[in-house]
User: Which sequence fits this backbone?
């Protein structure tokens, strides 16, 4: 198939450091190429891919200090994709509702993966108006605020099978927090849990500009606690060692997490996850097999004491069974083929 993948421009594909959506777009794109498909990736110019790269900005917008209006390159990209749409069998967008108005007026099948939270009422009108656009959810849980939307399929994220492996000779000795420091990720809970469990906590996490005040006012003072080590943001090449040497990953979220890529990154390393029961957690985790699903800090502390019950090899095996990028790509191809077979006509916009 001739497939267009249209990525956000905020980060490169794959991102240099943090960037969940762009990371998943990369994994999917590379697996589609490996399966023999003709893939064009519309992304920032500093992206790296085995597909044909169509550079839509010189570099990731987050890194380009000269960009005053980050929306301008994105809308220019949409117009460029539209002018090339006839070259493809299917267009796969990762830009939320941004493509809808343009691409419902052209004949090439298109689909959009929603990567974020959907409990924001101000976005619902876009999905109500463009109710013929097929949507991919990344968990069934993610759909709940918009259960009425035009969902085509839930496709869980996946990682390249050999991207992360359990580190040979690892000696797990601490608890880990990985990802992003923000109010909904609740690193403060992780610090409390580790302290009460008598464990060291290593924090490898990014601080977004939008969360800088929260970090400085609420979290930075906690980093001086003797059981806390703040490492900062790390890249993929550092994750296997970081996770393999952790007794567990703490995922004490306080929001409807759409997926939680870090959970399967830990599973790939054979590392258990102790996660709060929100959002996609019950879909991704298997309580008592890949970790423990808890309701509060007391239960999380108790779960730390139960970690020896879990088999790290069984956790890795469960990752291979459910969360590889190959499985993710094959599920996407099946959906693309269904969209092409359907040959959906363009939506006709009725006069007001």
Assistant:
């Amino acid at each position: 198939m001739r497939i267009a993948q249209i990525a956000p421009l905020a980060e490169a594909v794959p991102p240099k450091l943090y960037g969940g959506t762009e990371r998943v777009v990369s994994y999917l794109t590379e697996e589609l190429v490996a399966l023999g498909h003709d893939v064009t990736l519309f992304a920032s110019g500093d992206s790296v891919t085995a597909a044909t790269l169509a550079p839509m900005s010189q570099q990731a917008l987050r890194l380009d200090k000269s960009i005053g209006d980050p929306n301008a390159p994105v809308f220019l990209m949409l117009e460029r994709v539209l002018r090339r749409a006839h070259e493809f069998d299917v267009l796969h967008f990762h830009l939320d509702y941004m493509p809808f108005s343009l691409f419902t007026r052209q004949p090439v099948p298109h689909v959009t993966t929603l990567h974020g939270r959907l409990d924001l009422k101000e976005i619902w009108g876009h999905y109500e108006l463009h109710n013929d656009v097929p949507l991919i959810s990344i968990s069934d849980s993610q759909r709940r605020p918009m259960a009425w939307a035009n969902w085509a399929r839930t496709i869980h994220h996946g990682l390249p099978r050999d991207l992360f492996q359990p580190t040979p000779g690892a000696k797990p000795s601490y608890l880990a927090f990985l990802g992003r420091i923000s109010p909904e990720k609740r690193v403060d809970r992780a610090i409390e849990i580790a302290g009460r469990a008598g464990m060291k906590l290593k924090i490898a996490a990014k601080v977004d500009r939008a969360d800088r005040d929260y970090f400085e006012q609420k979290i930075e003072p906690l980093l001086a606690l003797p059981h806390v080590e703040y490492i900062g943001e790390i890249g993929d090449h550092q994750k296997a060692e970081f996770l393999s040497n952790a007794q567990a990953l703490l995922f004490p979220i306080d929001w409807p997490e759409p997926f939680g890529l870090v959970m399967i990154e830990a599973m790939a390393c054979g590392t258990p996850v102790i996660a709060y029961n929100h959002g996609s957690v019950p879909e991704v985790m298997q309580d008592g097999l890949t970790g423990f699903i808890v309701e509060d800090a007391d239960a999380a502390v108790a779960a730390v004491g139960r970690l020896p019950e879990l088999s790290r090899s069984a956790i890795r095996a469960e990752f291979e069974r459910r969360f590889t990028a190959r499985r993710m790509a094959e599920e996407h191809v099946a959906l693309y083929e269904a969209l092409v077979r359907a040959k959906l006509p363009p939506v006709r916009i009725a006069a007001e």
Remarks:
- The mean pLDDT is 95.
- The two ends are 38 Å apart (CA to CA).
